[in-house]
Design brief:
The complex is a heterodimer of chains A (77) and B (284). With 77 residues, chain A is mostly helical. Chain A has two helices and one strand. The termini of chain A are far apart. Helix content of chain B is 49%, strand content 22%. In chain B, strand 2 and strand 3 form a beta hairpin. By secondary structure, chain B is α+β, with helices and mostly antiparallel strands. In chain B, helix 7 runs antiparallel to helix 9. Chain B is built from ten helices and nine strands. The chains are: A mainly alpha (77), B alpha+beta (284). Chains A and B meet through strand 1, helix 1 and helix 2 of A and strand 1, helix 2, helix 3, strand 5 and strand 6 of B. Strand 1 of chain A pairs parallel with strand 9 of chain B.
Chain lengths: 77, 284
């Protein structure tokens, strides 16, 4: 594969190894990109903004972590 | 009782060798196979509707652990398929009731997929993100109100000094705000220059929304989240160009991801994709 990360070393540009892809970069592509087909199941989900869904998932998980840690959730409001 | 099942579709391809899919496992730890019709190949898995049915999906998509696992599996399958042939990946969680329904879709959408595959064959997507560290928007402004209330014991003095301190405080806030706005405007201009150069080099480009800081884990302001479709043979030239144009922009930190399967350019309806590109732009 061309474009080996070591080919482009040194600031200010960094190239991340594809094997450890950040979830957020993946969601940019899998939720906001990709062919959008109206599948049989997805019909009503297509109306939902999936990027927002993913953000809600993150916020929910932060709140759960916070509760587990016994902290106030107000800090995240 | 057996759970109802559906067919999850990852990607569409033309000349895919199904053998490459044997070693990869799909969403929900399923095996991956192909469904063919009219010269097109859909890469699919059989999934339980308990997990991928409408109700289940609504809940599961809000579960970050599930979302991450499913996204990574979807991506792994698309990457594996890409080793054999050009693929147009589908959006996450596209599910049909049966293989027969997938075949109908392949026939209905044949020409659109053929065009999409022509557009991306021999090309890869690179992601380029740029960040900037802005000056603090409301730096050290929290002291003033405390001083104000401490002085309020001597009424006459307090009134005049509060007025003076208040005006100074507001002036400082305004200056901070202006500095911040100037810096952010400059950073967006720099990002625009980077994007313009990369766009001119690429076959196609698309701007994604700036990532939420909570998801990216970066405190800096994201001023560019671009995707660029590049001919495979020109990968190194593209990366060199990124380094060159980014190096010319002081204070801008640039990060490259890829090469990706061309998710951002896998679109079947032209009008819609252009709208999305415009949309992404204004969101910036």
């Amino acid at each position: 594969m061309t474009g080996d990360p070591s080919d482009i070393a040194g600031p200010p540009v960094s190239v991340r190894d594809t094997s450890e892809i950040a979830l957020v970069d993946l969601l940019d592509r899998l939720l906001a990109g990709g062919v959008v087909l109206t599948g049989d199941i997805v019909i009503s989900i297509a109306e939902v903004d999936l990027v927002r869904v993913s953000l809600r998932a993150l916020i929910t998980s932060i709140q759960q972590d916070t509760k587990l840690a016994g902290l106030s959730t107000e800090a995240y409001e | 009782m057996m759970a109802e099942q559906g067919t999850y579709v990852y990607a569409i391809s033309r000349d895919l060798d199904p053998a490459v899919l044997h070693q990869v496992s799909g969403v929900g730890d399923t095996s991956v196979r192909t469904v063919e019709s009219g010269g097109l190949t859909a890469v699919v898995s059989t999934v339980d509707l308990d997990e991928f049915g409408e109700q289940a999906l609504r809940q599961n998509l809000e579960n970050l652990a599930w979302l991450e696992q499913t996204a990574r599996s979807h991506h792994a399958v698309a990457e594996t398929a890409r080793e054999s042939a050009a693929v147009t990946p589908l959006r996450l969680a596209t599910v049909y009731y049966s293989d027969e329904r997938v075949r109908e879709m392949l026939v209905d959408q044949h020409d659109a997929f053929a065009r999409a595959l022509d557009r991306i064959t021999g090309r890869v997507e690179w992601g380029v993100k740029a960040y900037t560290q802005l000056p603090d928007r409301h730096a050290s402004s929290s002291k003033e109100p405390a001083e104000e209330s401490r002085d309020s014991s001597s009424t006459v003095d307090a009134e005049s000094s509060t007025g003076g301190a208040g005006a100074a405080y507001l002036r400082r806030r305004r200056e901070q705000q202006q500095t911040w706005e100037q810096a952010s405007r400059q950073a967006f201009n720099q990002a625009d220059q980077v994007h313009t150069e990369l766009r001119n080099f690429s076959v196609a480009s698309r701007l994604h929304r700036a990532q939420d800081a909570g998801l990216s884990g970066r405190s800096e302001l994201m001023v560019l989240n671009g995707a660029y479709l590049v001919d495979r043979g020109l990968d190194q030239q593209f990366l060199d160009l990124v380094r060159e144009v980014a190096g010319a922009q002081q204070g801008l930190e640039v990060e490259v991801t890829g090469p990706w399967a061309p998710y951002s350019f896998a679109t079947v309806t032209e009008a819609e994709s252009e709208e999305q590109a415009e949309h992404g732009r204004t969101e910036q």
